[in-house]
Amino acid sequence: MRVVELSAFGKSDVGQVRDGNEDAFAIGDLDRGELWDGLEVAHAGGERGLVMVVCDGMGGASAGEVASELAARTVWREMREARHTSEPEVYARVLRRAVRVANRRVFDEAQREATLRGMGTTVTCAGVVGTKLVIAQVGDSRVYVLREGVLVQVTRDQSLVSALVNAGQLHPTEASGYPASSAILQALGVGPDVEPSLSWVDLRRGDRVLLCSDGLHGQLGDSALSVILHDAKSPQQAAESLVAAARAAGGNDNITAVCAEITGALDKPASEEDLPKFVEFDPREEGERALHSTSFVVRRLAARVGIGEDPGDPVVPATGTHMIVPRRRNTPPTSIADVAGPARARLGGQGLLRRLWWVPMIVVAAAIGWYLAR
User: Fold this and answer.
1) pLDDT tens for residues 151-182?
2) Residue 234 CB coordination number (10 Å)
3) N or C terminus: fewer CB in 10 A for the chain?
4) Which CATH architecture has domain 4-330?
């Protein structure tokens, strides 16, 4: 098996508008079992390599900070304690399990502490197995890969705007100014379980990887991200320059960037057409049947709020090794706020709510059906 050498650096900033920073990130060396201290660039060239996590919390007051930090540290801990594997399919399932454990930790903490009710967070995490970057995603934080000067987004946003664009109900040029541009379809900690989207990318020598919250990609746009990431001399310079640029552009949200550079025994790009591609992995299937060029998870989430068609049942737990947590009896939701939690709070705009009058009815009906079926 080829061993990929990886260098990474991360930076997070409160921005220019927010009072506190609800973003969190973690970079951990799985071979050493050590969490990055933030002082110098992290280097790894062992069999397990680095795991990188970016979370964007929500919930008001300090709740968002608690959710994002708890999720990031839980994913790191679960990956550190997991057994080593050289199979991307197995690694993806392990990463998925880590995210589901983090979801349960955040959800249970919110149930125990009244001041944390309604908190949630996005999570985007990635690690390297063989020649592949394996990713798990919940929410709208993103992963990009820069190759030969071309920046490619290799995750799919689990957001309302993305669903409307994909369904042809919103033109891409209208997305940035849409009233619900920050509304997400799924968040960690809002419910007792969550379905991460699993995907992977075939890496090439010289690739640069960016994990970031929407405070970065939403503030700068892909063109600016590409130029800054390409011109930087190191992952540290890339992360610091990206955050500084987002602050200079207004810094309307918290800003987080984790940048990595891929070296080692990898092939160079075969041609200009050898670009990164999004490939979603379905843990229910094996071989080629498990791989898709579109995100079934995003399509399922969109269908729950009446956008597009449902592609099928959600993924069931791949193994019985996930954390066992006693179920607690919860009061069935009676309003859209009970169901959507922090995602609902980020919708904003009475005009939008009038246009999406059908969303509460569908979500409440689905939630009640879910509770009754338990």
Assistant:
1) 999 999 999 888 888 888 888 777 766 666 67
2) 13
3) C
4) 4-Layer Sandwich (3.60)
